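Hi V.,

Quick status before I head out on leave. The structure for the redesign project is tokenized and pasted below; the design run finished overnight.
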């Protein structure tokens, strides 16, 4: 491998400086221009460097940014939980994939302009764009492994930097960027780019297919029912759904079309029932365990979904429960441990009224039980989430005592993690589980029982989750993204 000249010149693309905009559409258009210029430059120079060998210059491009300065304490509508900054100052955020986030950016920038009666500054930031993320948008360009090239990549191009690829904004209080500006959005551009790459890897679907309403499950049976529902929806011209997307970015738009199945499914098979403006439903089979639940929600959070719900199976902890009963979580006992460093266990994870009402009404609609009779098939209470699938094989006295003291009515390995990460990332969350076994009462999940349970309950459970999401879809954003999820100081962007 040839050694590079440490004194190589740094070459950057020609880009306009900061410009002030009084309209959101113009600001987003400029963000797209800046981003396209940066990525095209890096892709071109990277391809050229690979083809010719040792480069004679270092190539660098920068993420675009949005910047705003306000000088007034003028109050805004106190009912809003987003779309404004708390106090005078300068605020900024780096931006990636403005094509993917165009609707989101137009909405959030427009609210800032409207609520503060100020202009927005758009231009290149001081944050270099890693070449890995730039070439991710070009299917014809890939980054070889370190050592496979004739030069060391980081000597010529910028690579991902953990200093700007973290959750310091959402986890911290008093966060400021290096230039002293406050955060305008919950994630930096590099953090978003990292998650977009991880999503494509774990789900085998492009992030552009993700919808604003996300269902998580822990069993493949739900996927089969979701596909069946999607085909019925595509056959109904009044449904509003336009396409169904599976792993490998396979797309069908008609009910009878075949949906090819990849030879190897990804770690978290994901399916998207699409609707105009992202108003459809995404189903993610996260598999079993809190680590998977955290991984999925860590990355989906950057897409700023309007809600995510867990619809999976659980162990019923009360003798009065029956297999197939539903559990609506209104509190969580967190023994998953994967979020302890990000969100201490002493932080309460509150139930969100809008989500709870939507889920309860969906159970009533699908089951046709109303009022007091709904208690025949559903209990509301605390759901415990643990990180040990075989907890029953250990001394039960400690765990069972904690479960009793918490008044837990169900136990699983994902729900509290998903709810806690929703709380942490300000994404509305909820949980509706289905009792599949009762280990404390002699009803274990054995093969014969499981088959009968799956056959009779999965379809109805999924229908309830979809019905709840369709109710949430009709809520105004300012209602679903309520103040309950906001802290003392918050980013203006949702």
């Amino acid at each position: 491998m040839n050694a590079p000249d440490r004194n190589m010149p740094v070459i950057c693309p020609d880009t306009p400086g900061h410009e002030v905009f009084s309209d959101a559409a113009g600001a987003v258009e400029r963000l797209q221009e800046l981003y396209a210029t940066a990525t095209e430059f890096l892709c071109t120079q990277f391809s050229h460097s690979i083809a010719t060998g040792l480069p004679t210059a270092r190539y660098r491009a920068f993420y675009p940014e949005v910047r705003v300065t306000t000088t007034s304490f003028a109050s805004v509508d106190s009912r809003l939980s987003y779309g404004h900054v708390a106090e005078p100052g300068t605020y900024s955020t780096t931006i990636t994939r403005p094509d993917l986030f165009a609707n989101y950016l137009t909405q959030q920038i427009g609210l800032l302009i409207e609520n503060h009666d100020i202009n927005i500054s758009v231009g290149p930031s001081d944050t270099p764009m890693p070449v890995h993320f730039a070439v991710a948008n070009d299917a014809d360009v890939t980054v070889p492994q370190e050592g496979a090239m004739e030069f060391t990549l980081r000597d010529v191009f910028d690579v991902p930097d953990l200093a700007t690829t973290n959750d310091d904004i959402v986890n911290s209080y008093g966060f400021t960027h290096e230039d002293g500006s406050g955060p305008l959005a919950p994630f930096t551009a590099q953090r978003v780019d990292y998650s977009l790459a991880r999503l494509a890897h774990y789900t085998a679907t492009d992030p552009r297919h993700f919808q604003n309403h996300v269902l998580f499950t822990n069993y493949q049976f739900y996927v089969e029912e979701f596909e069946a529902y999607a085909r019925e929806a595509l056959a109904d011209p009044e449904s509003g759904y336009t396409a169904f997307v599976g792993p490998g970015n396979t797309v069908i738009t008609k009910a009878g079309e075949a949906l090819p199945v990849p030879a190897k499914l990804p770690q978290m098979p994901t399916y998207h029932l699409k609707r105009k403006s992202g108003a459809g439903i995404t189903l993610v089979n996260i598999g079993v365990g809190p680590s998977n639940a955290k991984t999925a929600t860590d990355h989906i959070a950057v897409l700023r979904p309007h809600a995510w719900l867990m619809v999976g199976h659980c162990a019923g902890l009360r003798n009065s429960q029956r297999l197939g009963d539903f559990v609506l979580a209104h509190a969580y006992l967190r023994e998953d441990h994967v979020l302890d460093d990000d969100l201490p266990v002493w932080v309460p994870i509150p139930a969100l009224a809008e989500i709870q009402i939507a889920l309860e009404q969906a159970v009533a609609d699908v089951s046709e039980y109303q009022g007091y009779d709904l208690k025949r098939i559903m209990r509301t209470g605390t759901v415990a989430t643990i990180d040990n699938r075989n907890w029953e094989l250990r001394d039960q006295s400690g765990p069972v005592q904690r479960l009793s003291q918490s008044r837990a009515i169900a136990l699983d390995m994902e729900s509290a993690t998903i709810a806690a990460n929703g709380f942490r990332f300000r994404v509305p969350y909820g949980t509706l589980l289905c009792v599949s076994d009762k280990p404390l009462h002699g009803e274990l999940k054995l093969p014969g029982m499981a088959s009968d349970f799956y056959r009779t309950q999965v379809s109805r459970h999924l229908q309830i989750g979809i019905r709840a999401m369709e109710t949430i879809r009709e809520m105004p954003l300012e209602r679903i993204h309520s103040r309950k999820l906001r802290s003392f100081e918050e980013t203006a962007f949702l």
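Above is the designed sequence. Residues 204-474 form a domain with the Rossmann fold fold (CATH 3.40.50.1580).

G. will cover questions while I'm gone.

Best,
W.
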